[in-house]
Amino acid sequence: QKELSSFLEKQQAEARLHASIHNFTGICWDKQVACVTGTPSTRFSRGEESCL
């Protein structure tokens, strides 16, 4: 019983971590897409650099 509870706690903590990472990735992706001009280049523009 105790092992099962411990296992479930660890799994829930891992699920919360994955959800947080997914959320932060979405936020950062949206901000990144909003600040990139869309012009392919080997370097970032000045505005893109400040956004990053």
Report what the structure shows.
By secondary structure, the chain is an all-alpha fold. It has one domain. Helices cover 77% and strands 0% of the residues. The protein has helices spanning 2-35, 46-51. The longest helix has 34 residues, at 2-35.
What's the quick description here?
The protein has helices at residues 2-35, 46-51. It is mainly α. The longest helix has 34 residues, at 2-35.
* β-sheet strand percentage: under 5%
The Cα radius of gyration reads 19 Å
The pLDDT mean sits at 80
How many discrete structural domains? 1
How many angstroms does the end-to-end distance come to?
48 Å
Largest sheet: none
Structure class: mainly alpha
Q: Segments where pLDDT lies below 50 for 5+ residues?
A: none
Q: Helical proportion?
A: over 70%
**What form results from the Cα inertia axes?**
rod-shaped
Order of helices and strands: HH
Annotation, overall tally of beta strands: 0
Total number of helices: 2
Protein name: Mitochondrial import inner membrane translocase subunit
Pfam families: zf-Tim10_DDP
Membrane topology: Peripheral membrane protein
Domain Tim10-like: 7-52
Index terms:
rod-shaped; 52 residues; 2 helices; chaperone; mainly alpha; Tim10-like; Tim10-like_dom_sf
Secondary structure: elements and pairs:
Blueprint: H1 2-35, H2 46-51
